[in-house]
Amino acid sequence: MLQIAVTGKPNVGKSSFFNAATLAEAEVASYPFTTIDTNKAVAFVVTDCPCQELDLVCNPKNSRCVDGKRMIPVELLDVAGLVPGAHEGRGLGNKFLDDLRQAGAFIHVIDASGSTDEEGRPCEPGSHDPLEDVEFLQHELTMWLFGILKKNWNRLIRKALSEKIDFSRILAEQLSGTGIGLESIVEAKKAVEAEYHEWKDDDIIEFLDVLLQTAKPMLIVANKADIHGAEENIGRLKEKYDNVVPASAEAEIALKKASEAGFIKYSPGASDFEILKPEKLNENQKKALNFIKENLLQKYGSTGIQEALNKVIFDLLDMVVVFPVEDEHKLSDKDGNILPDAILINRGAHPRDLAYVIHTDIGDTFMHAIDARSGRRVSSDYVLEDSDIITIICR
Q1: What is the CATH number of domain 3-129+217-314?
Q2: Residue 80 confidence class, pLDDT cut points 50, 70, 90
Q3: Among 115, 197, 204, 300, which has the minimal tally of Cβ within 10 Å of its Cβ?
Q4: Is the dihedral of CA 63, 67, 68, 71 positive or negative?
């Protein structure tokens, strides 16, 4: 299952985001992978299910469908709180960097209100600049990788020159434990003009900065967006960074709990909610719900939690959802389950790639694929599109 790391300083709402993203309704909690262990849990990204378009009743197996919205599981890692100097082992830095190896992308939760200092200690709202937190995390990641490369740098250079080996491959081997692949290294290496054997420390750092942007993309979640002073900081963050989502994890938790209690009707990611039992709410509860509506839903369009999850998967990681079926006529598996699976796959992937995602044996025996909507065979170089329904034919 695809893994996304949730990180940030202490006291910025990182754990609240993690809980808000994985706090499931009762029927979601029945999903077999909902709780994996103490620091991992399943969240869901949401996309349109073809069932409504095709006027079908689907029978999901690896995901869920609620009112025509397919909920696809991804695994969140609740990463240790980070403080400056983590790459040198300060705080819980070593645990954080171990978790980094597993994650395909990062959700960096920051306190948009500026009410926690650089160490994560509470301070007066507005007394700390949250933009510094973004820069410090990027620096910690870069310097961690720098430490891995620098200790063997001269040996790596000699090996490449003496054995005439592509230096990108040597770097890929050295960074193999970080989850960073050769393709990302080749692309990032273009950012440094000097020949690799002439690289200075600054050149290595420049290379690693670019490498992390592609190999471990990061989304900034501007949490506590409903606290005084946050709006101005969110504007500044958006001016400097492309991937910023205003959010309030506490508000999302409150709405989900109110929904579970039957007081309101609310769907994660929605821009509004409906009060079902106003007589059951006291004045403080009504004021709290009204505050959330005015200061988050009407201002930013949602609490930001579901938006953040979807943005990481569909924008930063550039993935699409494909629905594989065994029977292209009934759009079902061999047991008759209609649209049983929803598969996340990289944009630009081909049918054979999908076959390997489903199972290695299916990939090894792949012959061709059928577009189940049209019933037509598609070529092996066909580029899978979002919401495709595909049948894999094996020999």
Answers
A1: 3.40.50.300
A2: low
A3: 197
A4: negative
